[in-house]
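sry for the spam today, last one i promise. struct tokens for design, 70 residues
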């Protein structure tokens, strides 16, 4: 998971190990098609609106790891 929009609190947060999901929350999920289908079976319907396009609170950047020291 990445971003989470809390229906109860009305705000966007970044998920962490202690995040709690509640009914009507929205989350961003990343994985293979098989993994995404499995998550959908457990959590519910796919929301047609992407949280990735909501950049009010958090932005997105892809970084190429080019440092050989990493």
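last one done:
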């Amino acid at each position: 998971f990445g971003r989470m929009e809390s229906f109860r609190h009305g705000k966007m947060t970044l998920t962490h190990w202690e995040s709690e999901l509640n009914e009507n929350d929205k989350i961003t999920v990343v994985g293979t098609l098989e993994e995404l289908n499995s998550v959908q079976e457990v959590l519910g319907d796919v929301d047609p609106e992407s949280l990735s396009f909501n950049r009010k609170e958090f932005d997105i950047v892809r970084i190429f790891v080019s440092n050989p020291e990493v």
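The first helix runs from residue 33 to 43. ok im logging off now
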